[in-house]
Amino acid sequence: MRKPPADRQHKTVRDWGRVKLTCVGVFFCLAWLGLWTRAGYLQIVAGPELAQQAIRQHLASEIDKGARGEIYDRGGRLLAKSVEFEAVFVRPKEVTDPEKTVAFLAKVLHMKEQRVRKKVQSSSNMAYLSWRVGDRTAARIREAALPGVYFTKESGRFYPNGHLASQLMGFVGVGDVGLEGVEKSFDERLTGHQAKYVVQRDASGRRFFFDSQGRELADVNGHDVRLTIDSQIQFFAEEELEKAVTANNAKAGTALVVHVPTGEILAMANYPFFNPNVGRGISPRIARNHAALDVFEPGSTMKPLLVAAALQERVVRASSTFNCENGRFSFANRVIKDTHPYGVLPVNMIVRVSSNIGAAKIGLQMGAQRLYGYFQKLGFGQPTGLPISGEGKGLLRPLKSWSPLDVATQSFGQGVAVTPVQLAQAFLILANDGVYKPLRLVADPTDAQAERKPYRVFDADVCRTVQGMMREVVQEEHGTGRTARIDGLEIGGKTGTAQKAGSGGGYGNKYLGSFVAFVPAISPEYVVLVMVDEPEPSHYGGVVAAPAVRDVTLRMLSYLGRMPETVQLAKGQASGPSAAQAQTQAASVPAASDAPVELSRADKEIMEIAQSTPSGAKAVEVRSVPNFSGMPLRKAVEILMQKGIVPRLEGQGLVVSKQTPAPGAPWPGDNNAEFVLWLARPS
């Protein structure tokens, strides 16, 4: 065969390099065109929607709830605060050994196995076992490493002083909502607010906040509340009230201490106590603030108020006399009785021996209209205005329904009902030289009580006259309140023994014994009130309540550094009646002679000094050292410097924890004697 020519062979070879370059160029052009098209679509068409998706992925909202405000006493001592607790719960589906888990948790959490088993075998995804678990308990559960058992953080209310002022403080429920007491009254102020924050997060979901604390600066916490209560005086009142109730086999009791110059309540105690840290399951009857909510007939504590009104209206004079009918007075088909047969008595003796007949005759001379008017001025029949939810207004029937018998019985405290704080308010007027001054319970914020205008109810000279009569009740022979006597300190007071209404109508066989005291008797600085509900076997206020008032007063004045330097103690007597004096009281108060006189702790300390008196001595003069325990260091040093004593200080802190010499001991005989104060930091 013949081969083709060489030039023909060359023409059949193609230039593939140019084709490749062209193809690559076209591909890149199409790719760039597609990318620009896609970019245009994303920017112009789908841009707004994608921007919203980006915001949802990279920004998150954070809701923060502020802590509940704290509650303090007048001196800044903490009464209530919010803290974080650990709560333990189970996920039933993850529990691998139910019996072992139930047995262990029931033992550690002090719960019944039946209750724990019900939660462990629950069909729900999770079930709480305990909302508040202590650190040691939580550590034991963690060490056990039980499958299906978990912990979470919960915010709860903590009361560092346990039952102190429990009915006054109240407690909170689920969600930090105040349910009783101050917690309920000031719930809006105490409750923290919610704030919503916008935060950034990365691809792993970690959040980046706007400030170093993890949130924007905002005031979300609740505001604090500061009460007029002095926690130390509150403690004294509660301890002595508990003694009075238990020693007299009573059902309950109430105590109040009021500072006369300011009207501030320093103590408001109720017994039985309860621990607000265990708010669930508390009986409403025990959690109830009886001092402000419950009403009772005041009994003979009404008599000083009646006499003040009669003196103010010039119906009687201090020298006026009344025939007390030898203990039985027939009036309006009823018989009014006295505990002892008395003849003609002047007004001061009617108060001193607590004659119902004398009081009834004074009231009848006053008349219904004037008596009703003074009841209103004293605050009966209307709440005092204290910031206590559900405060009682007492019982004062309309004037048009009063009969002459009502006038007579209400004059000695039957047929009218008041709350303990109403009675304290009425006696505050008498102690404040006749000028109404509202009781106060809250120092911060300023409440509506501070804005109430004072007004005069009695003239000052009338109040001084009645204060003198109340002094006789405690200091003079045949006075019904002599068990409240503190020798060396002038105290005034009035006993009350109110018969309680029976369940079937009329009066039953239960009583309420009470005692109201002025400290000191003339121009009082403090009003102290104690009530003992249903005491047995003796029910007289001079027997069951007056000793508690005495002990509260002793401890309060010692704590405040106001104890009189000179105290007269009869041999064998400790700030209370001697055996002979007790017999005298027994003659004026039935059943009192069988009641043993219990010595308080303060009495026993002074008793040790009295026992060193030589046999046969009638009295010993004691220079009493006050109790500095719990007192600020500055105040304690000021008191000692006034005596020319420079104390030696041990420890660090600003509050006195203990002392040498002990409270109630004589002052050192010379200025070089050692006086030691041990210090502690305030709690």
Automatic annotation (TrEMBL):
Residue segments, region Disordered: 570-594
Enzyme Commission (EC) number: 2.4.1.129
A GO molecular function held by the record: glycosyltransferase activity
One Pfam family matching this protein: PBP_dimer
Coiled-coil intervals, chain numbering: none
EC class: transferase
Transmembrane segments: 21-41
Subcellular location, principal: membrane
InterPro entries reported in the protein's UniProt record: Beta-lactam/transpept (IPR050515), Beta-lactam/transpept-like (IPR012338), PASTA_dom (IPR005543), PBP_dimer (IPR005311), PBP_dimer_sf (IPR036138), PCN-bd_Tpept (IPR001460)
Cellular compartment(s): Membrane
Top-level taxon of the source organism: Bacteria
GO CC aspect terms: plasma membrane
PASTA domain residues: 619-683
Record keywords: Carboxypeptidase, Glycosyltransferase, Hydrolase, Membrane, Protease, Transferase, Transmembrane, Transmembrane helix
GO biological process terms held by the UniProt record: cell wall organization
The UniProt record lists the keyword Glycosyltransferase: yes
Record's keyword annotation contains Hydrolase: yes
Listed name of the protein: Peptidoglycan glycosyltransferase
Organism: Solidesulfovibrio carbinoliphilus subsp. oakridgensis
